[in-house]
Amino acid sequence: MPRPARLLAAVLLALGITHAHAYVTVYSQMPFGDSTSSSVIATASAVPDAYNDPTQLTAPALPSPAPATSFNLQLAASNGSVPGLSIPIPGTFYGFSVEMSVSNQILGKNASLLQVPFLNLMSLLKARGGGVHIRVGGNSQETATMVAALPNGTILEKAAVNTQDTTQTPALLVAPGLIYMMANISALIDGVKWYLGVPMNDTSNLRLQIAEYGEQILGDNLLGLQVGNEPDLYGGNGFGGRPKSYSPQDYFTEFGQEMAGINADTSIPVKKNIVGPSVTGATWSPDEVFATGYLSAYASNLAFISVEKYPDDNCQAIFGGASAPKDPQTEFPKYLTHAAGAGIIAGFLNASVQAAALGLPMLMFETNTASCGGFPGLSDSFGAALWALDYGLTMAAANFSGALLHVSGASVYYNPFTPPPTNQSSYHSWTVAPIFYSTLGVAEALGPTGTAQVVDLQANGASDYTPAYAIYENGAPARVALFNYMTDPSGASAYTASVSVAGLGLSSVQVKYLASPSVAEKYNITWAGQDFGGAYASDGRLQGNLSVSTVACANDVCAVPVPAPGFALVFLTEDSFSEVNPAEAAVPTFSTTTTKAGRAAATVTVNASVLATSNGHGGPGGKIVLGSTSQEGGAAGLGGKGRGGGSVLVAVVVGAAVVGWRI
Ligand SMILES: *[C@@H]1O[C@H](CO)[C@@H](O)[C@H](O)[C@H]1NC(C)=O
Ligand SMILES: *[C@@H]1O[C@H](CO)[C@@H](O)[C@H](O)[C@H]1NC(C)=O
Ligand SMILES: *[C@@H]1O[C@H](CO)[C@@H](O)[C@H](O)[C@H]1NC(C)=O
Ligand SMILES: *[C@@H]1O[C@H](CO)[C@@H](O)[C@H](O)[C@H]1NC(C)=O
Ligand SMILES: *[C@@H]1O[C@H](CO)[C@@H](O)[C@H](O)[C@H]1NC(C)=O
Ligand SMILES: *[C@@H]1O[C@H](CO)[C@@H](O)[C@H](O)[C@H]1NC(C)=O
Ligand SMILES: *[C@@H]1O[C@H](CO)[C@@H](O)[C@H](O)[C@H]1NC(C)=O
Ligand SMILES: *[C@@H]1O[C@H](CO)[C@@H](O)[C@H](O)[C@H]1NC(C)=O
Ligand SMILES: *[C@@H]1O[C@H](CO)[C@@H](O)[C@H](O)[C@H]1NC(C)=O
Ligand SMILES: *[C@@H]1O[C@H](CO)[C@@H](O)[C@H](O)[C@H]1NC(C)=O
Ligand SMILES: *[C@@H]1O[C@H](CO)[C@@H](O)[C@H](O)[C@H]1NC(C)=O
After folding, report:
1. Which residues are in the Beta-glucuronidase C-terminal domain (predicted)?
2. How far apart are the first and last CA of the chain?
3. Higher pLDDT residue, 53 or 340?
4. Over 80: is that where the pLDDT of 656 sits?
């Protein structure tokens, strides 16, 4: 019996799960106990919701010696001679990796029941970065099987787990409705595009139906197909019956069998859209895979070079075993330094150079703070938000074109956003975590032009506590990103960066702050004055009034203060601000509302067919009310602050919710 199966059975038994359809997310054949793997078992019945967990850590002590509290950042007037400047990086850089087995909780129930908060969050990102790239896959893709239909419009089903049979691993059945749901989301938010995972657990019996339906239904909204997820962990875990000795050469051969199948399949018209090799680096580096001749042998299929890595793991707490348990408080300072991001990608820099030489985008295909669910109080802290901002820009500066933050079930601590547990969805709304703000920040730093070039400024003597980046756009300096990892309520660790641009003659700059009193804070976090509220408080729209600071410059030098802790995004020109800060009315929103009792809407799921067909019926200021008497906005916590009027209202599926499409 393979170790994963035994452990999985033990976990299920320990949790008292005796029923296949309990509120449990089960990923097959996980690489348990491996620090770089993506695995997690989410058990809503054991841990109803990670965001109920009040665990708050303590901000680390201030560094000694302290970094200087004022320093200069002089930018070149153009990109022509900036050492270390990246290739152009798209504003879609930060996207999401949605575990296939929970896609029916995160995206929607099926093509006609989409999650409103999810749509709103994607709309915010699209308005800043020009689009959002989302992967549906993960460990659970490997044993997934596409079937023609599942009963009652269901799109996804986990095969039954018999906990008495400890060798059994659950598999996933998916229906084409999953892909239709993705297509409907793209139809509502232009610029949402997808990667799909194709199973590779059994290369003598290929199951390419996900690729076939994916290409046919998604068309241009399908970016790529991932074949093989973390193949360097296959051998160690006995995944798909593979031996411990499973080597890069074995993977090369099996990958070739998948490519041959795809190339011969006339229902898969696009051949050059494959994502690989998706190794973690724990067992094989990408370079070892490339040494097999992989890049040239599969040049006609490969469109993206991918790796996957989590810097840490909380597996011992979830699964037990021989390794020492990790203390989140001890791990916390490791994230609160500029060195963190560079450490994660150090083993992938050669691959990045190779990808660039081939003109292929380099992707961090799945990542987050820590595998096995993340750490309580760490993964869901303001510190994690600073870490993800810095890590993202570090990757961009190293010519990575995208990174996907993993999203899993309700019991994990690292989710950027989490729907309430199924049985609470009638009265709770979503939890948007600190790390989601990082995706907004990076989208604004890079913008929608596709010309953003990023450079690490090695600020303040390359201090690990006060990193900074410059972003050039269309060849000229556009934005500066400033970090302060220190927490110091006295104010003494705040710093001032004196930003200047040779020959530009700046008179003032605009600044947006990601602010919080402490790196340990979980809820009091604002991005330019706006937020998503606390646990269960969000419908995916920013709440509160936008508050942008203006800093006057003297003698071409702009002295930008950065609190401890904090992140500041400095906009050097009007365009660099306006292109990522569209008028609120220009951002489509999908709204839920409140019930008469002032509680959250009966559901946050919208009937996409109504939404899709009604879009355009109203026009600006028009109003269509279909089967709803509720008004938007108003009471208790949900949405609607300072909003209202001018909406096109359409019916949604359950209860008194409404949908507003602002034009
Ligand atoms: C939701 O389900 C969990 C697990 O079955 C249960 O413990 C909890 O009480 C339920 N909550 C509600 C509000 O029904
Ligand atoms: C499908 O829905 C019907 C009506 O609600 C129900 O009787 C039936 O049991 C459902 N079938 C399955 C397989 O869930
Ligand atoms: C989605 O699910 C609902 C409720 O289960 C069902 O009524 C509807 O027909 C399904 N929609 C599709 C497109 O299958
Ligand atoms: C939305 O889903 C429906 C139902 O599955 C499907 O018929 C339709 O083609 C989808 N729309 C798009 C734009 O893909
Ligand atoms: C691969 O997964 C499928 C679907 O879960 C399963 O039927 C098959 O036995 C698996 N093959 C191997 C070699 O593990
Ligand atoms: C990167 O390439 C250099 C030079 O070819 C080599 O020395 C180094 O080991 C490689 N790094 C990795 C992580 O493979
Ligand atoms: C990124 O690409 C640029 C342009 O080709 C190059 O100068 C730079 O060295 C690359 N950076 C890394 C870390 O590979
Ligand atoms: C500078 O930016 C322009 C416009 O984005 C671009 O065409 C050019 O290649 C860039 N030059 C360098 C050296 O990166
Ligand atoms: C929230 O954080 C801000 C700093 O970002 C602080 O000024 C404010 O007092 C905090 N609010 C609460 C209620 O703690
Ligand atoms: C937002 O601004 C409006 C108008 O200036 C004001 O009435 C309202 O109180 C402000 N809301 C918050 C949360 O500050
Ligand atoms: C969604 O709306 C369409 C069109 O009004 C309707 O036919 C369908 O039954 C609705 N779906 C659900 C699940 O209510």
Report:
1. 468-569
2. 58
3. 340
4. no
